[in-house]
Amino acid sequence: MDEHKESFGLTSRIYATRSAEDGLAHVDLNRNVEALIENPLAHLTPEQLLRDVRDFARANHLEEHVELLKKGAQVAKDPRFYEAIRGITETEKQALRDEEYRRFKQPIALYLTIITCSVGAAVQGWDQTGSNGANLDWPSVFGLDTTAGSSSSGAWLFGLVNAAPYFAAAFIGCWFSHPLNHRIGRRGTIFVSAIFCLTSVIGSAFTQTWQQLFACRLLLGIGIGTKASTIPVFAAENSPASIRGSLVMGWQLWVSFGIFMGSSANLAVYQVGKIAWRLQLGSAFIPTVPLLIGIYLCPESPRWYIKKHRYNDAFRSLQRLRNTPLQAARDLYYIHAQVRLEEIMLGDGDIQKMNLENGKEHFTNRGRYLARFVQLFTIARVRRATLAAFVVMIAQQMCGINIMAFYAATLFKDAHASKRSALFFSWGFGLINFVQVNPRVAHTCQQSG
């Protein structure tokens, strides 16, 4: 192979090689130390861009939209000079201006997506804290001795049941999300994860032994892990670039809101008698129902459609998510260019070969899942990011925030507070957690938006 820099819209920090046999380009990710990637269309001449758009439209049965795609590709190539593009209407110009000056003037379908993703995050928080109040009662109902200093195994079993969702999320749910996303898309994956979250918390409310509760909470962890791995991606892929950072950062805000709502539910039902702990565990089904309905009504991720070469479906999805067909056409072609570049950058570990048949690119994937896992450790910059994420997550657990989310009521009860006071103090923790997260996320959103 002869090594040379290729014109893929990459910075000079990315180095590519081209094979004389198959014409495939491969990028050396280890030499891209700072992970700098520019607009993949920026280095194309106007003639190259229009020719590529025509070929793209012909290959993907979008000929009827070719003129719109040409305008959209020109806007994507250089967003600063859209007013000078021939054929662009005043309505389209105003819509492009609104992206900068009225960022939250968006279609109903996008707001439905935002609301659904927010509900999904709230489910995450509510699931975590539902056991907070229930912990005051269920161990004694199931005959577990959790007294401090006791020689019995009750305290260990108590901790095991509470930790079960995170064991399942870490070892099953998060890993399960990739094949699910690959097969049934973002919406399908979120729907399946919501089913796990709904049935497991309802099952928890009807359990008769700690083993049954443990099994239900394992199932809950599968739903939590799969959902947490998918909803931020779904929000990012459906959002326009101008507000993408704000919407993705909103995940943490609504998780903290879910924790607050869960602690409110714990306080609301504690006086109903022997079934109080069952209602506290089962109350997490409340936000899951609108999640199941909302995700069915949302448009699928256009990026996922493009990865599956379903360009007409992707265009229809983008038309629902953008204010004008021009913006939909722009993002369709831009996402296509990004996905194509990413597939090239993945190299032989992800793509076995690329054939050109009737002007359309077909990829034979090999070892996609294993290759991506290996790249966490073999690509230097990705390895550093993996290590940083590992350290941050360990630090998050060691700071004690999850102990408060799971055991706040128990800690106050052990400090000789009454059940009502313990639940009230736990509710106060949920409120403070939500209120203090709100401005921090808002500040981060302003920087990223």
- Helical residue percent? 55-70%
* Secondary structural class: mainly alpha
The general outline is: elongated
Widest sheet, order of strands? 1-2-3
* pLDDT averaged residue by residue: 82
Describe the sheet with the most strands: 3 strands, antiparallel
Which strand-content bin applies to the residues?
A: 5-15%
Distance between the termini: 42 Å
Regions with little confidence, pLDDT below 50 for 5+ residues: 1-26, 348-366
Could you give the order of the helices and strands? Answer: EEEHHHHHHHHHHHHHEEHHHH
Number of helices: 17
How many beta-strand elements?
Answer: 5
Return Rg in Å: 25 Å
InterPro entries: MFS_dom, MFS_sugar_transport-like, MFS_trans_sf, Myo-inositol_Transporter, Sugar_transporter_CS
Membrane topology: Multi-pass membrane protein
Family: Belongs to the major facilitator superfamily. Sugar transporter (TC 2.A.1.1) family.
Transmembrane segments: 108-126, 155-176, 188-206, 247-269, 387-409
Explained architecture:
The chain crosses the membrane at residues 108-126, 155-176, 188-206, 247-269, 387-409. InterPro entries: MFS_dom (IPR020846), MFS_sugar_transport-like (IPR005828), MFS_trans_sf (IPR036259), Myo-inositol_Transporter (IPR050814), Sugar_transporter_CS (IPR005829). Keywords: Membrane, Transmembrane, Transmembrane helix, Transport. This protein has 449 residues and is mostly helical. Helices cover 69% and strands 5% of the residues. The chain has a 3-stranded antiparallel β-sheet with strand order 1-2-3. The protein has a two-stranded antiparallel sheet with strand order 4-5. The longest helix is centred in the middle third of the chain and has 52 residues, at 154-205. The radius of gyration is 25 Å and the shape is elongated. The model is unreliable at 1-26 and 348-366 (pLDDT under 50).
